[in-house]
Amino acid sequence: MIRSAVRLLSLTVVLLAQPLVAGAQSLELEECRISMGPGYPGTKARCGTMLRPVNPDDPGSPQIGIRVAVVPALNLSPETDAVVPIAGGPGQGSVEFYLSVRGAFEPLRRDRDFLLVDQRGTGKSAKMDCPIDDDSLLFETDVGIDELLGYTQECLDSLPHDPRWFTTSVAVTDLEAIRAALGYTSLNLYGVSYGSRVAQHFARRYPDVTRSVIIDGVVPPQISLGPEIATESQAAVDKILARCTENEACSAAFPDIDATFARVVAELREAPVEVAVPHPNSGRLETLRFGIGQFAGAVRLLVYNANTIALLPLFVHEAGQGNFGPLASQFMLTAISMRDALAIGMHNSVMCTEDVPFIDDMTVDREGIAASYMGAFQLDTLEAMCEIWPVGPLDPEFKVPVDSDIPFLLLSGDADPITPPRYAEMAAVDLGKATHLIGKQQGHGQITVGCMGRIVADFVETRDPSSLDTACMERSFVTPFFLDFSGPAP
Questions:
Q1: Angle between helices 145-158 and 377-385 (to 10 degrees)
Q2: DSSP reduced 3-state for 471
Q3: Is the bond preceding residue 480 a cis peptide, omega within 30 degrees?
Q4: pLDDT digit string (tens) for 178-226?
Q5: pTM to 2 decimal places
Q6: Helix (H) or strand (E) holding 244
Q7: What is the 3-state secondary structure (H, E, C) of 251-273?
Q8: What's the rounded Cα separation, in Å, for the pair 291 and 324?
């Protein structure tokens, strides 16, 4: 009874937003509903805005508002440690990310609040975005470096705040200030993709208030994202096409699918094609110039998820027959959704501070990149943009693996096209209490796959990664290949 009373008192303190930490800023929360946008169902929460200086080292600098939402636990006497989902990108807001995968997190919400914080520069937290119209997005993908630098400068000129202060090293100070203001005794961090970098750095900088960490699609601190994106994505595509070849039904429907893929890449590099497809938003028929850049954009995102992986052989086969409509539609859908979801200004601030300056030309496989279906365009673009993008602050140990005994659960997919399982092993090198789980034939991000929500909930409850019952992962959670447009094969 005493323990229940203490928990209830703690919940009351949190909801009234009275800080438990001496000297902490207070944060008032009000009843609200959060959603992914118009037409989506709302979720009850308590919302507020934390005012933070753009430059935390200068309290006199201009202030920005950091969006905060608390989705309360189902238990009326919850634990005093909250769960914090951290989105990827970089550039996606965490509120939107949580709502997109909410069902997988429900086992965790039984006893713990979910603390949702749109990282500075994303979502509704001083979003650092650049205006890009659909014509530029869809029809001017293959631009020259000079034109790209022009777009980049226009983007910089349009930003509402100094982009230097929108890096991970600054963002973790916001999260800690919000934790203290709301009175949570500690945090259970879940970070996906780029969010795994944020979670690791928060645990490094604030170990005393980090109770547990789940990192999904792991970006190790010592890796610079960029140079291996093309080669890892090519490796993922090769595995998918090989799996189709080994599958009797898929191989019969799409013979020599790997050769077809190579032929389509070569043809599009030689000359783009014009494809008439309906625009995803308006439904109006648009004539799209579909070249290797558009092809790479469509394929790269298709291989992220096990469900869309199932479409790849069918779409490639159709392209090999001269029907580029499915891939062109996929590109349009992907490009617009990415434009809407990611804050490109914040994305560039992170990449140009935390990744590009640390690229070691001696280790970059330029030949492998050039030979991949993506080619060198993505890396060349990133390096060119960062020539003019301002560099922000970086904590001294930022690029060093986290050395900690905090319980860590690392999640990977063995078909991940951007953060392969070996990245998780690199991140875990100095973790004393960690377990690495690998999903079979899975792509990027495991939280929504099969029984993973239950495993994650058990981990947060026990903080003992070695005791987890993972037998359910032996079941297959892979969508069968689509042999035609009527659906997956039986």
A1: 50
A2: helix
A3: no
A4: 999 999 999 999 999 999 999 999 999 999 999 999 999 999 999 999 9
A5: 0.92
A6: helix 229-246
A7: HHHCCCHHHHHHHHHHHHHHCCE
A8: 10
